[in-house]
Amino acid sequence: MHSTEHVEKVIANIERVVVGKRNEIELSLVALLAGGHVLLEDVPGVGKTMMVKAIAKSFGANFKRIQFTPDLLPSDVTGVSIYNQKTQEFEFKQGPIMANIVLADEINRTSPKTQSSLLEALEEGNVTIDGETHRLEQPFFVMATQNPIEYAGTFPLPEAQLDRFLLKIKLGYPDLDDELEILNRLENKHPIEQIKAVLDTSELLTLRDQAAAIFADQNIKNYLIQIVHETRKSELIDLGVSPRGSIALMKAAKALALVAGREYVLPDDIKRLAGPVLAHRLTLSTQARMSNVSADEVIQQILNSVEIPVSRRRLTSS
Q1: Could you report the per-residue pLDDT of 220-251, keeping only the tens digit for each?
Q2: Which secondary structure element, helix H or strand E, spans residue 80, and what is its range?
Q3: What element of type H or E holds 300?
Q4: Are strands 132-135 and 126-129 parallel, antiparallel or unpaired?
């Protein structure tokens, strides 16, 4: 089966649970295929939890949920070594981070110390407990949810942790027709109980390899770098995107090309992903904040100012 057919089967499966959010589903799969992680920010009750559960069930992956609360400890996330009196040795008890797909629910409800316990896992794919490093099984994918910062009782994520998420997306409220469809589907039985795996984790890893092998023309790379460099020069931005952001945007663009059924990256891939990949990596200036200009709007201004290249691969394939 072609990779595009694989991806379409997964999207269709998730859409049985998540109604009217094709774009957000595709972006979540882009992060998964690129080996990155997703931060979902939105108000409660719009389907954030159902999204990640549907993704996990679609791949038959080992799934764990971490409900972040103010009293959660780092060891509650990573695991802990416990002394066994019978064997007189320490035994490691795995934490919920030891899974293929992890839902870090309401991550900004917990303390910064516990939030930071995710950093090593997100970036390096392992956790260190009592000086011993434990490798996380691949695929490893975290989808963290958070309520907007203005809600009471939340701890804003520090820049170092925000940078670990490949994409930041919002689901938003459904429109009238979609909400009616949600009511109809939930009338008897929740659809999450009915969906089954359409791929397995080995097929997911194969798709990841295929995404990494997608071709990116030199003009495309130059276009990407120009966008990133503009974030470092804009008067509306105090702290621009780091090289890690450039790498993240390239990985995501390749994964998006695979989702679209192409073997090469187009400028449109960069344009579509610039906001979700770069906006949360910026620190806006006081001028921008006082003018109520959002990071997404600044990114859009930059996209409008940078000349779009013509990919040689696109010319030869047309």
Answers
A1: 999 999 999 999 999 999 999 999 999 999 99
A2: strand 79-84
A3: helix 295-305
A4: antiparallel
Q: What are the φ/ψ torsions at residue 90 (nearest 5 degrees)?
A: -85, 135
Q: For the segment 6-51, what is each residue's pLDDT rounded down to a tens digit?
A: 899 999 999 988 888 999 999 999 999 999 999 998 777 777 888 8
3-state secondary structure at position 257: helix
Which residue segments constitute the domains of the chain, with CATH numbers given? 3-204 (3.40.50.300), 214-317 (1.10.8.80)
Both tokens of 113, joined, read 């110390």
Instruction: Measure Cα distances from 124 to 72, 208, 217, 257 in Å.
Output: 22, 17, 28, 25
Reduced to 3 states (helix: H, G, I; strand: E, B; else coil), residue 113 is helix
Report the Cα 169 to chain-centroid distance in Å: 8
Secondary structure letter of residue 310 according to DSSP: -
User: Can you tell me the distance from the alpha carbon of 42 to that of 263, in angstroms, rounded to the nearest whole number?
Assistant: 33
**Location of structure tokens 């949920």:** 65
Q: Tokens 């882009």 label which residue?
A: 30
Q: In this structure, what token pair is assigned to residue 195? A: 């969906």
Q: Which two tokens stand for residue 82?
A: 């416990």
DSSP state, 309? P
Residue 151, classed as helix, strand or coil, is coil
Q: Which of 213, 298, 309 is nearest to 269 (CA)?
A: 309
User: What Rg, from alpha-carbon coordinates, does the chain have?
Assistant: 20
- Which residues face 101 on adjacent strands? 63, 141
* Paired residues of 103 in beta bridges: 65, 143
Q: Is 266 helix (H, G, I), strand (E, B) or coil?
A: coil
pTM assigned to the model: 0.88
